[in-house]
Amino acid sequence: MTNARFPSRLRVLLPVLAAAAFLLAHGLAAQAQTQSSPIPSPAMRVSVRLVLVDALVTDKEGNVVRGLGPQDFSVLEDGKLQNVTNVSFEQPVLLAREVRSQRAALPPNVTTNRPAFRMPSGQVIVVLLDSLNTRTKDQAYARLELLKYLGTQVQPGQQIAVYTLGNSLRLLQDFTDDPSLLKAAVESFQPNASVQMMLSDLSARMPRTSGAQPESLHGTQQDMALPLQRMQDFLNEQINLITDARVGATLTAFRWIAQSVAGLPGRKNLIWVSGSFPLATYSRIIKYSADGAAANDPNYVRAEHEYEDMIRETSSVLNDAQMAVYPVDARGLIGSLLGGAEDPGLTLGGTLKTGAEYGQDLQLASRGLQETQATMQQFAGDTGGKVYLNRNDLDHAVALSMQDGAAYYLLAFSPTSKVDSKFHKIEVKVNRPGVSVRSRRGFYALPTADDPKFARVRDGEVRMAMQAAAPGATGVIFDARVQPPAPAAKMKVAVDFLVDPSTLYTEDAGGGSKRLAIEFHAVAYQQDGKAAGQRDVATKVTLKAADFASIQQQGLLYHLDLDVPPGLYKLRLGVVDQRSGFIGTADLPLQLDAPK
User: Fold this and answer.
1) Phi/psi at 479 (nearest 5 deg)?
2) Which of 3.30.70.120, 3.30.1240.10, 3.40.47.10, 3.40.50.410 would CATH assign to domain 123-206+238-335+371-403?
3) 525 with 532: CB under 8 angstroms?
4) Whole-number percent of the chain with pLDDT over 90
5) Order of strands across the sheet that contains 169-176
């Protein structure tokens, strides 16, 4: 719902913004500035668009190539040469070792999601242990390998967070370079059985008709063929539905991790330890005649759902957060694609598998392996990461993933393409012989804030972000102060937001004016996780040039009131940029005393 009072309220507040910028008076912004490093901050999100590209340049031995300047790089968008406006060489780990300061303290009743108050500067690394897409034995193996790495190879300045993905996305350990905390987090991870993987194993043990037409079989074989085939088809359809669900859950987790780190400066590595998911699901298409016989080739299959576009869209969100994906195949070195020693070689009907059935199993397993590894390769390629497949030294693969990106070039250019919501390819070239470059493959031009598909995705992510247990998001940076009222049976809690305008996208409205589309959210959660009060405000506002200039200097101030009864709460606050879909959240404990 649009708050019609916002423009007039904003005009009233603008003349007193300097005095009302309470957090500046407390020295909060100044503390954040002294605590943060000179790593480039997120690009100013204005109508003159700026695309950031992290480029890893290495020689034939895999060593980082240093000493390159703007004259050495060429960036092409859809094959057209672009004007590179900035080139810098970044070494966040080295910088973190030089600047080892304590996190700043916040004043009472004040919260923020500024990076300086969450973690020290350094290389940002997220490890995602994926139990949703990984068999139990592979989860256990990956856990042991990751513990081996954490016990010996964590480097100072590597800020590592550990998540796990199962029925939901869980943060096991926020960013730290303390190996003991990281090991404790990974040790707390217990392998979980994936229902989808169990169903896939069940499908592999179903009796098969060896691809023969039911009418070509005889006797008992013919009586069993059609029911068994229909049972197999039904089970495959259930697997496809579950695959749709887990692909959606995985991509949502990726997007949410990107939202969580979007405000942190510099390049980030997402190390995805997983068995992955396929690029597509398939269904047998069989037309049956009136007497129940198959009327066409029973081996004909078609792609039921293809996920390539969804992966590309998710990669775009990761790229906007400067996050590269490093998939590590938790299955390790893959030998035989057929069952191992634990496979009894029997179907669920108790019969021995025939040679033809083993052949079908091999074909399905081979296609499944290729599809899941293709997904990993696409994520890595789209985001400028690297994939690690078919190796038993997963600890070394994790180490290589973490080292990659410790030094890189940050390029910036303003694209000449139209804002058309389409995907635009990016190619980075270096005019040095014998070097290779890895970078993002493209970007999506921003859709309009009212685009229905974009709005549905954004609204779903906002609902997730405002849940009590959701990790914090830094896509939009803000500070907030809460003023607890005097004790009463029903209280109006005053919440003041101060939003960093450099983390908002604006549109030109003509005559130097700028247009913003923003949401403000506040939810008071009780100790049992239930919401005791909630306020959601969405607004679109056009600012004159002078007003926008004031906001750029002093921040965007907004006030809302939240009705809450007496109690002890966790207040979750959120700001959403409707144009980009970026989200910022922060929490604050709130105690409201009842009247005596």
Assistant:
1) -115, 155
2) 3.40.50.410
3) yes
4) 47
5) 169-176, 158-165, 123-130, 268-274, 323-329
* pLDDT tens column, 12-36: 333 333 334 444 444 444 444 434 3
Indicate if 123-206+238-335+371-403 has the same CATH topology as 6-35+465-592: no
> Alpha carbon of 172 to those of 129, 164, 474: distances in Å?
10, 7, 18
Cβ(275)–Cβ(483) below 8 Å = no
Report the C-alpha gap between 217 and 518 in whole angstroms: 66
pTM of the model: 0.79
Number of H helices, E strands in the chain: 14, 24
pLDDT in tens, 509-529: 888 899 999 999 999 999 999
d(CA 518, CA 3): 11
Count of all residues that appear for the chain in the document: 596
How far separated are the first and last CA of the chain, in Å rounded? 37
Return the structure tokens found at 412: 């910036």
CATH number of the domain located at residue range(s) 6-35+465-592 in this protein: 2.60.40.10
Tell me how far apart the alpha carbons of residues 348 and 22 are, in angstroms, rounded to a whole number: 69
- Strand-pairing partners, residue 127, are 162, 271
Q: Given pLDDT bands bounded at 50, 70 and 90, which one contains residue 162?
A: very high
User: How many C-beta atoms lie closer than 10 Å to residue 155's C-beta?
Assistant: 17
Q: How far apart are CA 201 and CA 203, in angstroms?
A: 5
Q: Assign 592 to helix, strand or coil.
A: strand
What is the token pair recorded at 153?
A: 């190879």
The domain ranges of the chain are 6-35+465-592, 123-206+238-335+371-403
Residue 366 has which token pair? Answer: 């081979």
Tokens 């890189």 belong to which residue? 408
Which is it for the CA torsion 52, 53, 56, 57, positive or negative?
Answer: negative
Please state, in angstroms and rounded to a whole number, the distance separating the CA atoms of residues 125 and 54: 15
